[in-house]
Write a structure and sequence with these properties.
The protein is of the alpha/beta class. It folds into two domains: 142 residues, P-loop containing nucleotide triphosphate hydrolases (Rossmann fold, 3-Layer(aba) Sandwich); 61 residues, Wheat Germ Agglutinin (Isolectin 2), domain 1. Helices cover 28% and strands 23% of the residues. The protein is built from six helices and eleven strands. It has a six-stranded parallel β-sheet, with helices on both faces. The protein has a three-stranded antiparallel β-sheet with strand order 10-9-11. A hairpin with a 2-residue loop joins strand 9 and strand 10. The termini are far apart. Ligand LXEULUCI binds next to helix 1 and strand 9.
């Protein structure tokens, strides 16, 4: 049975790498994939991994109907044996419904990859819809780690190394704004807004001893 699978995890846990591996293994056996992405750090129409691999992809636009895109593609006599959607957190909920329809009505497997929550630990609308609709949600095996060594479960946005909790939900990483970065943290340190830089700074500052009053 074809499936809608949501591979989810924090940033930097290997989602795009896995997407490229699935694509490689299937294309090595003569299958052809339809690859969707949106706002990849490598630029428009690219699916890239931090390991340096990159492939061409269809850049999804606002309001684009992904089911219609597949139907048009197939009715032109072109092939699509499976579908990959990277950066799926950036898709609209309706586009996730369209991907579910691709599974159910076109009998194609759809592998979606994305982060579940944003820098404030709130669900992205696209990821929420994936959790609601997916046949399976798979958490990636390679753990990203917090600076303290615990498993990283949350994504922090940083400004000059300091965690911020205000701002737009979507700010693509590694492009345009050099001051803004992302860091994965465990829940404890995300709650305390303690990044690697702030932890280092507080470790360096001299202990403040309680002052005894007479
Ligand atoms: N220099 C490196 N050597 C080995 N593995 C690396 C290196 N740089 C990145 N990685 C691996 O790549 C992962 C990030 O891959 P990527 O697919 O881009 O992540 P995601 O799409 O989840 O953000 C890291 O978690 C790490 O396992
Ligand atoms: C937490 C968070 C992330 N983003 C952006 C930053 C990156 O461009 C992608 C995640 O890509 P990755 O391959 O999983 O590293 O999402 C964002 O726009 N808003 C956020 O809150």
């Amino acid at each position: 049975m074809p499936e809608l699978v949501f591979f989810s995890g924090t940033m930097d846990c290997g989602k795009s790498t896995l997407a490229l591996q699935i694509e490689h293994n299937r294309s090595a056996r003569g299958l052809q994939g339809m690859i969707f992405t949106r706002d990849d750090r490598a630029g428009e129409g690219k699916l890239s991994s931090r390991l340096g691999l990159v492939t061409d992809a269809v850049e999804v636009a606002d309001g684009q109907d992904l089911y219609v895109h597949l139907v048009d593609h197939l009715s032109q006599g072109r092939r699509a044996d499976y579908v990959i959607a990277d950066e799926a957190q950036f898709l609209a909920p309706e586009q996730i419904d369209q991907l579910a329809r691709v599974v159910d009505d076109l009998d194609l497997d759809v592998y979606a990859f994305g982060i579940t929550t944003d820098f404030r630990s709130k669900l992205f609308p696209g990821s929420q819809r994936l959790v609601e609709l997916a046949d399976r949600v798979e958490v990636l095996q390679v753990e990203a780690l917090c600076w303290c060594g615990a498993r990283a479960t949350h994504n922090a946005r940083t400004l000059g190394g300091h965690m911020v909790v205000e701002g737009a939900q979507v700010v693509v990483g590694d492009v345009n704004q050099p001051d803004i970065g992302y860091e994965v943290l465990c829940r404890r340190h995300h709650r305390r807004r303690m990044t690697a830089a702030t932890a280092r700074a507080s470790a360096l500052s001299p202990d403040v001893l309680p002052v005894e009053t007479v």
